[in-house]
Amino acid sequence: MTPGPTIVTPPDASTDEYFMREALALAAHARDVHDEIPVGALVVEVEGNVIGRGWNRNIGEHDPSAHAEIVAMREAGRAVGNHRLLGATLYVTLEPCAMCAMAMIHARLARVVFGAYDPKTGAAGSVFDLLLDPRHNHRLSVQGGVLGEEAGAMLTAYFRAKRARRPAAGDA
After folding, report:
1. What is the pLDDT of residues 1-36, one digit of tens each?
2. Among 41, 65, 109, 144, which one has the highest count of C-beta atoms within 10 angstroms of its own C-beta?
């Protein structure tokens, strides 16, 4: 018999916004200190304590798997001494990609709360809906769009600035 989805009473909107602001601060750190794509994430356990923080590190670490969510879940796993993060919520500023969504399922997170939707590679409902796919033996509660305009604006500004710094074709 396959277990059903984990049922968790979601915190109120102010709690989600509080933790999303911390994730946005991590995204700004990625951008300002490391010149990485500004995505930040944190894992919060059932009692409300942050047990993992991360920001995108894939460019600087030459690691395609070093997305903010993966970094935060690795830290959380070390903090609790387990690869399962039962009952925990992951806050991330951008809708998870397929790689990160599957890692969340394997970690048995209870919830994911994200900011900006990703219409190109989002795997929490925009392009794919991996987190709620009934074929998995675990599903998460998903809340999207929390401070999404702010998170989206940070990403848009980052990529505009990157494009502005590139030399035009033919310039050398």
Report:
1. 333 333 334 456 689 999 999 999 999 999 999 999
2. 41
Strand 40-44 relative to strand 50-55, pairing? antiparallel
Q: Model-level pTM?
A: 0.88
Annotated active-site residue 47? The verdict is no
End-to-end CA distance of the chain: 63
**Residue length, the chain?**
172
The SS3 of residue 82 is coil
Q: Where are the alpha helices (DSSP H) in the chain?
A: 13-34, 68-80, 98-107, 148-165
Active-site hit among 22, 45, 61, 69 = 69
What is the token pair recorded at 37? 């794509």
